[in-house]
Amino acid sequence: MSKVVSAAALAANMLGKVRSPAIPYKLGGRSDKGTDCINLIGWAMQELGGRDVPRGSNETWNKGMAWRGTLSEAKRLGKLVPGTILYIDYAKPAGGSDGTPGKMDHAAVYVGPGHGIKTPDGKAGDVVHASASRGGVYPSTLANAYTHAAWLTGVDYGTTDVTEPSIQSPSQSALQSQAKTGPRLHKLIFVNNECYKAGKTIVPKGLMVHSTGANNPMLKRYVGPDDGLLGKNQYGNHWNRPMDRKVCVHAFIGKLEDGSIATYQTLPWNHRAWHCGSGPKGSGNDSHVSFEICEDGLTNADYFRGVFNEAVALCAYLCDMFKLDPMKDGVIIGHYEGHQRGIAGNHADPRHWFTKFGESMDSFRAAVKRSLDGGVVIPAPAPEPVAPTPAPPTPDGSGHEVYTVVKGDTLWRIAANKLGSGARYTEIVELNALTTEAIYAGQKLKIPNTIRA
Ligand SMILES: [Zn+2]
Prior knowledge:
Layout: E1 5-6, H1 7-16, E2 30-31, E3 34-35, H2 37-47, H3 57-63, E4 65-70, H4 71-76, E5 85-88, E6 106-110, E7 127-131, E8 136-140, E9 148-152, E10 155-156, H5 172-176, E11 185-187, H6 194-198, E12 206-211, E13 251-255, E14 261-265, E15 288-293, H7 301-322, E16 332-334, H8 335-340, H9 351-354, H10 361-372, E17 394-395, E18 401-404, H11 411-419, H12 425-431, E19 444-447
Parallel strand pairs: 1-10, 11-14, 12-15, 12-16, 13-15
Antiparallel strand pairs: 2-3, 4-9, 5-6, 5-9, 6-7, 7-8, 13-14, 17-18, 18-19
Bound molecules: zinc ion.
């Protein structure tokens, strides 16, 4: 029989888990030998004699909460107290496109300010979490990308008001403040690859962009086993297994089974990957975080634009995480540039693909910089010049107004202007069968009929 745990006791237990050296990161662990984000919380509940917590972040979010909402709602409703569970939904920073949260990727516990705990970057911490990228249990801050908050069932948060209807639509301002489209990040760590088992870490000094060199845009070719989104790899030849070649990267960008574009993180970001071989000046494996973009037949402009934008979003995210300057020499490089610099084997990726669509590593780096500086990434379309002003609306054959995207547009803004509500941007996504929310100047979008059916 489990007892009700006080929120303050949960927060205090978390503070006790901040140690030096840090408790290491270990998937599924609930002990001093290692733990992960949700099991850190489950472990605390266990120690406090409380209710058991499901072993997955998203599962706990779906099944283990007395109240759930966005972080801004929690603040507004007075529900952000020491012991409140924080979540990051990397794919949908301000809630799902229909107002319901997407899949939760990371959980943490708010402990409140003033405890003297410091993040690895030296900031005053008010959150404690088990971080895969940092490799252990560390303080964090509310400012660190947390999007949602929740009250764990079986914890007393000092009020009886825990039955409020869950999941409210995020406010318009919350969504509007989502100026930057982040990567659609999922995680499936390659624990069965020898590279993961080698267990070496690096201090990331840059990012290396690869493309696979094989005509198969499906993530399931490389990432497995199937998590319900990837689809099943019938040959079982994904990379999460002992392989005869020493290859492993930190992430893949490609298509899910449903055709949408996503990123899968496959190693902890600070893990030493096997992605580029070496040259006379050493190996980029010792300095660069790496990812592969799954190539298709290299003729599909929509797919290229989708994965290019996703790669830009991923690099902006990683530059932010590791405080990297995307424009600094040698920070973001293609594999072929690694070879030119003497730290990688001789490959042509991803230049052979980028150039087919008017892009280069220079334009890529500039797009990452724009993304970091704020605003949705809007690469100029190639080869058409950017229209300086919106073209007048023209109906297409189906009677829909066709709108031409201009620089600075976001789907939200277009929906707000054309449909009277930014939240209706999902209708534009649907009508145009968009696989990414990143849009580009010159793109033609059908606008749904203004009057809702
Ligand atoms: Zn490569």
